[in-house]
Design brief:
three-stranded antiparallel beta sheet; about 40% strand; 2 helices; four-stranded mixed beta sheet; alpha+beta
């Protein structure tokens, strides 16, 4: 279950970034996951819940966006979605065989291996205006 180590790294990176600011609450963290990463949504959600306990991220939602596989073929110049020659059987840890959908040539994967934080929905610490004494809390979306 490599989702735990991946989620731990993502959470550590988010916490390190947020520590530079006065954040009161994190509502959601959106991550982009490529289809070739072989990361399971349910496993990531479970790992996120466990790893964020006792942190500023506890109780926040993990939003997962998927990126489909796209390739580039140096033989014919094709760029776009890929056709899998064999369906991956993740129960036995096999990997998909990819080829160019136009000429069946060798390809380079250009999308589908991503694993990164896209944005965060945060609430900043409430501040009191020094001249009027009024309070201000700003919620915002944080894009990385």
């Amino acid at each position: 279950m490599h989702e735990v180590s991946v989620v731990t790294s993502l959470v550590d990176a988010v916490i390190a970034e947020l520590s530079r600011y006065r954040i009161e609450k994190v509502n959601a963290v959106t991550v982009i996951i490529g289809d070739l990463t072989n990361l399971g949504d349910e496993q990531m959600q479970f790992a996120y819940e466990v790893v964020t306990r006792g942190t500023i991220l506890e109780g926040s939602e993990l939003v997962i966006e998927h990126i489909p596989v796209e390739v580039s073929c140096s033989s014919c110049g094709y760029e776009g979605p890929v056709r899998m020659l064999s369906d991956p059987d993740y129960d036995t840890h096999s990997i998909p065989v990819l080829s160019c959908p136009e000429c069946s040539g060798d390809i380079t994967v250009v999308r589908g291996m991503e694993c990164t934080v896209k944005c965060m929905d945060i609430e900043e610490v409430e501040e009191r205006c020094s001249s009027t004494g009024t309070r201000r809390r700003r919620g915002r979306s944080w894009t990385t």
